[in-house]
Design a protein that fits this description.
This protein is an alpha/beta fold and 332 residues long. The protein contains eleven helices and twelve strands. The radius of gyration is 19 Å and the shape is globular. 45% of the residues are buried. Bound molecules: S-adenosylmethionine and iron/sulfur cluster. S-adenosylmethionine binds at residues 24, 30-31, 69-70, 72, 98-100, 122, 161, 163, 190, 192-193, 195-196, 327-328, 331-332.
Length: 332
Amino acid sequence: MRPALVDSFGRIHRSLRLSVTDRCNFRCPYCMPAKDVIFQPRAELLTYEEFERLVHVGVRLGIREVRITGGEPLVRRDLPRLVHLLAEVQGIEDLSLTTNGFYLQELAEELKEAGLRRINVSLDTLRRDRFQRLCGVDALERVLQGIEAALGAGLAPVKVNAVLLRGLNDDEALDLVDWARERDISFRFIELMPIGGGPIRGGEYLVPGSEVKARIEGRHPLIPKRDGDPSSPARTYRFADGRGEVGFINPMTEPFCSRCDRVRLTADGKIRNCLFDRSELDLRGPLRLGASGEELEAIWRLAVRNKGVGGCVELERGAGPIPTRRMWQIGG
Ligand code: SAM
Ligand code: SF4
């Protein structure tokens, strides 16, 4: 089938991030405001059947990978039902989920049975008091047990991601890596992006990935991994002693926009080309008004054709204000 989601820079889009809710039970300060959060009315969110229909449309346009995100996707009721619907869509080769891990203890097995392939869990600290201060919930133990449950359920590979914040948790880089190595978990560090809705917006809190890598290399020699997915935002390294791997996602200091193959669908049915985008095209309205598959395809194609060079790159050039929709409303 001819790939249809090609932008004016020749980038072909095969990967879809599906945000299923803007709600979350955590309040990470680089992502969400601490209080007075206004969530979208439930009637505005796509139903699971609507997500399924749009994923079918996406497959006809060349989408091959779907990652479910949020907000926190596992706070949406009966998420395994959506996983089951999407796992049945012919043409999807990879179905994954990003979660804060809080509900994994209960749901890991069910998600696996529903057809989820693999999972990414976010974990910024291994210290209980710090976890509570950062995420606003005393849930470190639960999240660690959730990660064990995911490993036990065979959601392989389990990847764990951290955002390091200068002066708040960046002293834990080596502890996090050692913790992951003991469990054969692939660990990845994500650079802080200035698109959160909370008190931490970047600037002095940004810890460049190169700095984290240098610190890790001081203890564990690293070998670049060359057989990875070329469109992946992560630069991945094997530990020279053969025990696991570590990745760095550096959107701020090493933008990867030129190899981006991702497009996003928000929980209320808007196509967004990039986390940093300032515009969106609506699919929910036409969908609910009875648009045909061809009509929905045409809107989606048009949205991608108009994709800009790349969010972080444009931001660096000072191209206008940062977007009004924030991280928790888009999904990472
Ligand atoms: N709630 C789920 C979670 O935390 O994994 C999924 C949604 S969350 C928005 C997805 C990822 O984005 C998480 O790994 C989170 O750490 C990351 N993230 C959130 N705000 C960020 C920011 N301002 N800069 C970089 N990464 C961020
Ligand atoms: Fe919630 Fe994930 Fe954002 Fe943290 S990063 S507030 S867990 S959506």
